[in-house]
Target: Diaminopimelate decarboxylase
Amino acid sequence: MSNEAQPARSLPTHAPMDQFARQGDELLIGGMPLSRLAARVGRTPFYAYDRSLLSQRVAELRAALPSGLKLHYAMKANPMPAVVCHMAGLVDGIDVASAGELRVALDSGADPAEISFAGPGKRHEELAQAVAAGILINIESFREVSLLAEITRDSGYRARVAVRVNPDFELKHSGMKMGGGPKQFGVDAEQVPELLAAIGRAELDFEGFHLFSGSQSLKPEAIVDAQCQSYALALRLAEHAPSPVRFLNLGGGFGIPYFPGEQRLDLASIGANLAQIQREAREALPQAELVIELGRYLVGEAGIYVARVLDRKVSRGQVYLVTDGGLHHHLSASGNFGQVIRKNYPVAIGNRLEAPVESGVSVVGPLCTPLDLLGDKMNLNEAQPGDLVVIYQSGAYGHTASPQAFLGHEAALEVLV
Ligand SMILES: *Cc1c(COP(=O)(O)O)cnc(C)c1O
Model:
């Protein structure tokens, strides 16, 4: 259990945050006690990512998925260069969403042949850089076909492209839907045959399809369903392709448990389904390499955010731990990054794991807004100024997904341990 010790039986609890070992009062990050790590980092707040947990997650995933299936890391989840370098050594490819991410991906040593670039608003310069780099571009509009034709003409470098399809279905029960209905992402499935004809006329090097229907799903049935529908749609669209499909990215959407009552995703049925799709694809699309792309699932559980308690205030009976970190560093833990109803991330006092538990404690940041709430009325080990508050499940969409300039505090540091 995280530090939500002895909850009432009927209340949902957080999934156990047992990925990190402990030593007495101290949480261990990459084997190092948290207090010592904080001393090594030199100041709080900081994000810490555990290298061995990243490796372990990829190994577990490989064991659950059919061999031969390619695993890509969607680096927007955590673009820290050291993390991307580590991941590049573990996965088969990197998915980037901007020229800035492309630079980090290329620096990481990832094979350009295995880097792909998606995003609804790619600038001319970004496309030109991508073509020169020799990476795969996931086309998301007719405009991109014309731009790439022009870039190819001007540079003499041939553009490698796949079509990002806005499917006619969505990932059910997901945290964020990114396909189905009207969307800014991809090209509507019904327009894809026309787009494929344009790609053929422009003499771009067509490689295949990219389908991404949603994010943060904890329902294996929903993921299986989306993968089956994605595959079926790709088969139908392949009939219109100017050349055989060599690349088929079926998306991802694997979630991690953030909130009370959520459980870790069971991969068994997802792995079995992908194996089935792979068998069918060997017949139907014999040249196609199957890919899934994951961000959050690969890195989210391996990271924590650490802030120091500055003050302990009691307001009309309610305990507030005021920390040096807050929503400006960790927007999603404050509940302001796409959540409809604010819920608590799992939180611990990472250097007081054996202290008595007190209930109804709120963890807040230093900002002058009531939105700066990192934990609302939680059961936590008793903490005093100087102690270290840990927010688990912070390896994805943390540091770079937060408004760090808000109120002019210093940015959080990041370490890979
Ligand atoms: C954001 C994104 C991902 C990663 O999503 P996660 O939920 O972090 O796994 C993958 N593919 C595309 C196209 C994305 O936009």
Remarks:
- The first strand starts at residue 22 and ends at 23.
